[in-house]
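S.,

Sequence below, as promised.
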Amino acid sequence: MNKRKFVIPILLLPVWFALYHFLQPVTDWLIEHVAGLEPGKHLTESIRFFIFEFPKVLLLLTLIIFFVGILRTFFTPERTRKILEGKNQFTGNVLASSLGIVTPFCSCSAIPLFLGFIESGVPLGVTFSFLIAAPMINEVAVILLFGLFGWKTALIYLGTGLIIAIVAGWIIGKLKLEHWVEDWVYQSRFGIGNVEDEKLTWQQRIDSGYYAVRDIVRKVWLYVAIGIVVGAGAHGYVPADFMASLMGKSSWYSVPLSVLIGVPLYSNAAGIIPIVSVLIEKGASLGTSLAFMMSVVGLSLPETIILKKVLKLPLIITFVGIVAAGIMVVGFLFNSVF
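The prediction came back faster than expected:
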């Protein structure tokens, strides 16, 4: 076993913590002493926001994705299928929602996962719990929320996302909507594989962590940059009163409006969360902001279009409607509590 695979991450951790700790003072020094920008000006604060937030988010992504990449090697799609196979309705919903957080998933894998689960006898509602949780509650979203808002908001997002996935899947299961799945799905023998899981060494698992960092950061850094640029502009120039009037607690329509706007949009967490950060800073309520974010991330338009190949339109409408209703309940609930 190559011991360097273990030593390098251990040696890099102090470097990571030093960079993260000194990021704020270095940013202030660059803005005020190197660039000579006057504090408090709109342009100054927008630039300060970007210079601080962009490397901060990338640092958080790099650290957490490395460990999540290792964790994911224990939860392959085939192993996930085996875990869910044969479980009763509610237990399956809970397990599927929890596994959706750590199991590799993207819109392009929606069909093979769906087919594999159905072929294995996993109930339809349990399958939907997984399909809801996997894109909505992902490591990028949790990392960004932790970095921008703190651990309490990240836990709120994690908990409410799980509840939505569990309840929505349970409702779909109770409605017995199997007749709205395309007929060919039950007649075919596709799936996500019947090969036994490969026994990986720790060296291979650590390699998987490196690959995850390289792959995910390469895919999302531009979304992070764009989101933070938009957020920086709003941070420096958008009046707080405007956002408070549009997305504040006092506006009864703010939650349904945010969901209606968010459902047809497509973005990943890396692009939308920096914008949500500024919305809250400018007076938008936590519940409305969470509802907007969940509708954008959790109800992915490309995934919905892909699922049209295996689901009939009434089931897709039911799926989107139940999830959107759950998101609105969360929005109203948190607006009334916080």
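Residues 88 and 123 are 8 Å apart (CA to CA).

Coffee later?
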